[in-house]
């Protein structure tokens, strides 16, 4: 199998299982694509927590439970 055979094979695969092959240069510039990717990544970052933030929240919950146990014992 030669490289050209692989190109044809992958194009066929993309047509059958994917959204096809881009046939021209497209309408989005590199700058626009980069800006869009950065914008979407910022949205993703807001929705996800870093390991440090997760540990912080876990610590807060643990401390809150300890405080609740102590306040229940004093009543």
- How many independent structural domains? 1
Helix content: over 70%
The proportion of residues in beta strands is under 5%
Structural class: mainly alpha
Helix tally equals: 3
Indicate the overall shape: elongated
Mean pLDDT across every amino acid position: 89
**What is the first-to-last residue Cα distance?**
81 Å
Show unreliable segments: none
Topology order in helix (H) and strand (E) letters: HHH
Major beta-sheet overview? none
Topology, number of strands: 0
What is the gyration radius calculated from CA atoms?
A: 26 Å
Description:
The protein is an all-alpha fold and 75 residues long. It has one domain (3-74). It is built from 3 helices and no strands. The protein is elongated, with a radius of gyration of 26 Å. It starts with a helix and ends with a helix.
Q: In short, what is this structure?
A:
With 75 residues, this protein is mostly helical. Helices cover 76% and strands 0% of the residues. The chain has one domain (3-74).
Task: Compile the SSE list and pairings.
Elements: H1 3-17, H2 30-47, H3 51-74
Give structural attributes.
75 residues; mainly alpha; 76% helix
